[in-house]
Amino acid sequence: MEVFIFALTVLGIWLVVRVKHQQAEIETLKSQFAAISRPQQNTSSPETESPTAESREAGTSTQQAAKKAPRPVRSVTAKPAFTPPRAKPQLSVNRPAPTPEPAAPGWLSTMIGKLREDWMLWTGAISVALAGIFIVSYAISSGLLGPNLQFALATLCGIVLHGGAEYLRRRDPENYQIFGGLAAGGSITLFASMLAGLYYFEVLSAGFTFVLLAIIAMGTMVLALRYGPLMAIIGMLGAYLVPVMVGDSGGKFHFALGYILIITSSSLWLLRHIYRPWLWQGIGAGALFWWWVALTRTDTNTLLPWYISLTLLAYTLIPVTATAAETRYRRHLLQLTAIFSSITFASVVLQGSMPPDWLSWISVLIVAAIAARRYEGLKLMPWLISLALAVATQAYRYIENQALAATAEMAQFQVAMTVCAVFAGAWLWTRQRDSYLHSSLAILSPLLWLACGWLIFGAPETENSWAGWTLVMTGVYGVLSFLMLRSPSYQRLSLWAILGLHASYSLAAAIWLEEASLTAALSVQLISLTLLMRRYSVPSLGLLLKAVLAVVVLRLTLNPWLLTYDNSVHWSLWTYGGAFLSALIAARLTPESNPVRRWLEAASLHLFVLFAGAELRYYLYDGQVFTHEYGLTEAGLNSMLWGALALTYRVRARVSSSLAGWYNAMAYVLIGLALISYSTQLLWNNPLWSGDHFSTTPLFNLLTLVFAGPLLIALIFSRTTTDQERNFSRWLSVAMGAVLVLLSVRHFWQDGYLDLGQGIATGEWYSYSAAAILAAVIVITVSLWRGQASLYRYGSILMGLATVKIFLSDMSGLDGLWRAASFLGLGIALLGMTWLYRRTFGSGTVTADSEQTP
Question: Exposure pattern of 593-621 as b/e (b: 16+ CB <10 Å)?
């Protein structure tokens, strides 16, 4: 049946060829007939139409009469000395506006258009290719003939297809692409027969088979240059499916992967000669497909790293002979880096139940170093491969368990990776001595794999050993930093040795110390980096200091959600206080001209706010700094902390040019959080109805702290923000001050219990008026002292509200001399405030222009 289908397919392609040939001849005859039957046009005036027959006859008779008429006698006159040139008449021609050229269609649109136009050609070529595969599959399953004869017939079929394609191409050179389908089918048939002869018929040895496959693949590539893209698409990209169509490899999957490597290499050879986007994507899709097939099997733990390494080697070492192809190929180097790093990580993590062959994965790093030395665009690959393998080892430890990961082979792998990474970085650095990436790979790789080893093999009883070896590495980095800083040629690259010094010190602190002490140990590095920056002019050392500073600030900011500490010791004092002190000392040691100083000063302010908040929590919650209850105390502390952090982010936005927008956005977020927290103080946790009891000591109590703190933050905002925000901050300060005064008065009269259910005493009611007048007098006095008319306006409003309360409510309960004395005192106070205002600002209406700044 397969032979019959194959014969029909070949017949169909022959008919397509004949039909196209006949259509071409018909089109040629039509064009020739149209050229003969077209009337001859008058070419004397291309802008006029062809004359009719009558006009041609009239013109002929007029010319003959003119020839017979006698010639007139011409009078000879003097020729003028100068004749001005006559202006040529301008012809107005209404030309249409030029239309822009349409954009060139993309490769996908072009491919779809070709498929629509030549769908019969593509279908026929695919049918021939499938027929060749089916012939081989039928020969395997039927068993009618001997293995040698089956293999010979399958091979002969592929050779016949190639011979027929070449014969037809020479007979009809114009339709060479059509015969490329026959040649592609022949190549696929040969591929299938070689694989069948290897692991089904067993008539070929492995080495000889791969030699034949390489010859067929390269021959197919040469023929693809002759037959066009159809040969490449169906012949080579379709060859990736041959092992699937032939059937299971019978336990010889490594032969299938070797065949795929040959196909990939030959396809890349063609790609380097003639670049096509679809060819690049097809090769990548085929290679990734077989990587996924290998990943899903349980017997490829050793094959998978070698398949990835050799595929990367093929992408790297195939020579480029066309300049345009090389330019386009280099555009994809970043994609190659990302793809190979990702599949390396995924291969280790997702490789089924079989443990990875760790030592085989070193080959990927070695090939990545070769690729980075050959192409500048692949310089990131060695680092990314190293990081991918390091992270994959930790992921494997979590997915399986630490006992399966902590093996002797894992230890050998980590030591070998350290040695290979150091030599690879040094080898690459010898070619590009100014490369930061290559030098960093050689210097920092030992520390990377030491950290991975501690995470996998570390145990409580071996912490001292690990910390000791880490300190030894710290000493090595210190000596290396000293030597590189003293050498002018190596001083530029000493950044990585300094980074290794501080990172190894941090790792030793992480192994030896607890969480709280670790933060303090990390912050001490700010001082050492500042001293190095003062002593040596190393580029990017300030960037390293900023990175350490960011780690410390981020760690302390996110402490409530990340870590837990032992509450038996006063850990917040040296953790937050030590970090703040280190940042402050580093800021003082940094020269004024260095822009890093402003970063350190802003970070010191940030750390001081965190330190103050942590100490308040420690004393208010009896050592439980990060309590899990939310009440009035917690809401007040959050309002103060978030408001103060918003102030620090405003300061950091002023000293940063690149992150100013981010800092301002964070400041607005923190302001919103502070306002929400203060709203919960007033609505949800308000002591007027929450039933909370406070100390009876006036003013110096928790109530004053949680309501005066946000007021102080609002007052600071009113002095440091823009005009629009300043007005909002001032009105907010007035409202917060009024709340604080009202609660303080009630606290004084109710002995610390503010619930409204107890009613309001007469003395308490009068005290509200007195407190309002006193607050208004203080505000007005400050406005007169500082010369701020707008602040005087706020005091006047507060005085007016107190006056309205006195007239409408307080005076109604007084009579006799008490009433007279009250009116007299109120009048003298109002007149005195008015007199002081006139002496300060003068008479007239207060406007915004009359405000003076101190």
Answer: eeebbbbbbbbbbbbbbbbbbbbbbbebb
